[in-house]
Amino acid sequence: MSAVQTAPASAKSAPLAGQGFVEFADVEKSYDGRSFAVTRMNLSVASGEFLTLLGPSGSGKTTTLNMLAGFERPTHGTITLEGQPVDRLPPYQRNIGMVFQNYALFPHMTVEENVGFPLSVRQVSKADIAARVGRALDMVRLKQFGDRRPTQLSGGQQQRVALARALVFQPSLVLMDEPLGALDKKLREHMQLEIKQIHTMLGVTIVYVTHDQSEALTMSDRVAVFNQGGIAQLGSPDDLYNTPQSSFVASFIGENNTLEGVVDRVSGGECRVRLNGGGEISALAVGVTQGSPCHVAVRPERLTLSATANGGNALSATVDGRIYLGDHLRLLARLANDQVLTVKVGPEATMANGETVTVSCAPNDCRAFPADAGTGGAIPKQGKTK
Amino acid sequence: MSALQPSELDRPTLARDRSAADADLKSVSAALRRAEFGDRMRSLLLAAPLLVLLALSFGIPIVLLLSRAVYDPTIADALPKTTVALAGWNGQGLPGDDAFAALAADLKDNQAKGTAYELAKSLNARLPGARSQLLKTVRKLENADGQAALDAVKSVPFWSAPTTWPAIRSGTNSLTSFYLLSALDLRWNADGGVERVPPEQAIFIQVFLRTFFVAASVTLATLILAFPLAYLIANVPKGLAAILIVAVLLPFWTSILVRTAAWTVLLQKFGLVNDFLLLIGVTSDRLDLMYSRIGLIIAMTHIQLPFTLLPIYSVMRTIPPSQMKAAYSLGARPFTAFRRIYIPQVFPGVMAGCMLTFILCLGYYITPALIGGASDQLISNFIANYVNVELNWEMAAALSFILLVFTLALFGIFARVLGLDRLKLV
């Protein structure tokens, strides 16, 4: 499929050694001079990478994207793009494609005019524009809709037009700000694959903002989890899911059961945790110290139910509810301290409501995090120091 | 067999099904129409009191008044005998004695009924100077009968003048184009064609042009002032925007008469504006701002500003900031983005605001009356003068009709160029 070709980044100017394609160095942004929307951000994006900024609203991910696009200026620090600092470059000179959440298509122009806009402001000849717009619309399979107005298209089609428009001028970097937020679930999943395909095909670098963790896991090479203006953890989807480094990441990525307790002793990589309300379990120690309160996170699919204990951690519970989900079954297991754990089991499980069971799991599947850096603040806010 | 060729065998059944389905659809749409009819009747019933009020207090009076522009039975009613006598006249020279006798009889009748003055006024509108001549004749006829009456009429030279009888004859025709033509500075000539009135009598075309010029100037001035202000209000935080909107609307809550009076205070020769201009040294002499075109445009611009601003603001408010951001990110410089993305999207609001102000300006009355000089009176002032002072309602109706036609034509052009659905009035 011949489509929009993106020039490799190295052809333009070789990135400096040791530097990423996009580089945030100590970037800070404050709107009011007192609190920070983004604090001490250091981030490096490799050429051709699909990086997702994931986080709850107000965590600074959109501010980060806006600084990269040039709509906001950092109050401190430097952003470099292909080795060049871009702090003084207005958005229209950065040559970055951007896809907005509400599409931001121009309602007074046809689909073709919308897609041709970035080319026409670059003084590309009419014939050239027509050819490239045709190819871009071909790529998003909207060739036959060229003379429609954006309002005559469905949400998914509008999003594809926005995509074509952001790619048609062959930017080496494309930013996407929750581009699928307004679509329904099915269409969203379809568009995720489509965007991923285009990314693979063009080799373009994409920085993608979303608050939907499943979207981030589906599409990204790497994910930066944002919390309170900073990056809580940066890693591959696999890393984030299996080895979260904080309670926040553990609960934000995927589903997790959280048990509260106090660290009894730490030895090697493991620790023994006395649970609030009775019981003890072993877990991997992730930055916990002896005697401090902690949160132990364990995935529902890592828990097993049995009539009797079979090694590892074992807690006794009663079955409190069954949720049938077709391919699997969710059982709610109530512990002695009234906390309810979610356990993911095969659909053939027979435990009935009220039955007493033992919930068990391997210590390797339990991760203990310090409680003070719990769901709230992975990165504590810091005042600006001079 | 049927399993092998289902289409062959099923076709008749299918056709039957389709017609049955069509019938079903028809009955469904009929039921829908019935249901909607009830709804429509109910909503009509709700609107009925207002519609009746509008028809009685607005529609019918307007139609009745405007009809006077083309229907004026005063002369025909006052001169029934003359009307009959003139039926056989060919319009050349003077009519026969029977017409003079009929006129004498009609005039006596009018004097008896007390309608002579009204007739004199009506004839005067068509034939300047007719009023005094007619009233003089009526006095002469007081004690005259038969031949004496005929002589009395003939003794007044006015009745033998070449223009008199054609004017009377055209007056006896109740359906007349006289006023409409006059409103456009036109008249019938002796040959039955339409000609321009002599330059010294022509006023209305000039007044219409002046009205359009003033309206266009005020519209342009309000647009220049309103566009940046609307942009500001649409782009500041909500609280500040509310304060600015109130500031813009504040004058709205004051009567137009008070605002106009305020401007007469400000614009006077020894008023604040002149004082200020002298103080900062812009002028070395006091300007004649009152009773001048420039003062009129200043005052009207102030009054019209909200009308232009609000439609523009309401459109600007609907344009999300991401539109301009998108344009920038796609490589458009600020001016290009403004010209190609912003302006086309606010254009319907700009047109709506300008049209509103332009059309309202065409009907301005109080402000030109108080602030404008003698040569700044707009068409409304002439209409008011014909209604209140001259009591010539036919002429007022004709001028109003021409103004209404111009305004509707303008609206039609606007709507045609823009498409009515794109017009956004507040």
What does this structure look like?
- The complex is a heterodimer of chains A (386) and B (426).
- Chain A is α+β, with helices and mostly antiparallel strands.
- Chain A folds into two domains: 15-242, P-loop containing nucleotide triphosphate hydrolases (Rossmann fold); 256-370, Beta Barrel (OB fold (Dihydrolipoamide Acetyltransferase, E2P)), CATH 2.40.50.140.
- In chain A, 23% of the residues lie in helices and 32% in strands.
- In chain A, a hairpin with a 4-residue loop joins strand 16 (313-324) and strand 17 (329-335).
- Chain A is elongated and about 75 Å long.
- Residues 1-18 and 374-386 of chain A have low confidence and may be disordered.
- Chain B has three domains: 1-67; 74-176, no CATH class; 204-422, MetI-like fold, CATH 1.10.3720.
- In chain B, 72% of the residues lie in helices and 1% in strands.
- Chain B is built from 19 helices and two strands.
- Chain B has helices at 6-67, 74-78, 80-86, 97-113, 116-126, 130-140, 146-155, 164-172, 178-183, 204-235, 238-249, 256-267, 272-279, 293-317, 321-329, 334-362, 366-371, 379-388, 393-418; strands at residues 186-188, 194-196.
- In chain B, strand 1 (186-188) and strand 2 (194-196) form a beta hairpin.
- In chain B, helix 4 (97-113) packs across helix 7 (146-155), helix 10 crosses helix 14 and helix 14 (293-317) packs across helix 16.
- The longest helix of chain B has 62 residues, at 6-67.
- The interface between A and B is medium-sized, with 28 and 19 residues.
How many structural domains of chain A? Answer: 2
DSSP summary: helix tally of chain B: 19
Alpha-beta classification of chain A: alpha+beta
Strand arrangement, largest sheet of chain A?
A: 6-7-8-3-9-10
- In the CATH hierarchy, the architecture of the largest domain in chain B is Orthogonal Bundle
Unreliable parts of chain B: 1-10
By DSSP, the count of extended strands of chain A is 20
Mean pLDDT of chain A: 85
- Calculate Rg of chain A over CA atoms: 25 Å
Quaternary form: heterodimer
Portion of residues within helices of chain A: 10-25%
Helix % of chain B is over 70%
- Written as H for each helix and E for each strand, in order along the chain, the element string of chain B is HHHHHHHHHEEHHHHHHHHHH
Question: What's the CATH class label of the largest domain in chain A?
Answer: Alpha Beta
CATH superfamily of the largest domain in chain A: P-loop containing nucleotide triphosphate hydrolases
What's the average pLDDT of chain B? 86
Main sheet properties of chain B: 2 strands, antiparallel
Helix-strand makeup class of chain B: mainly alpha
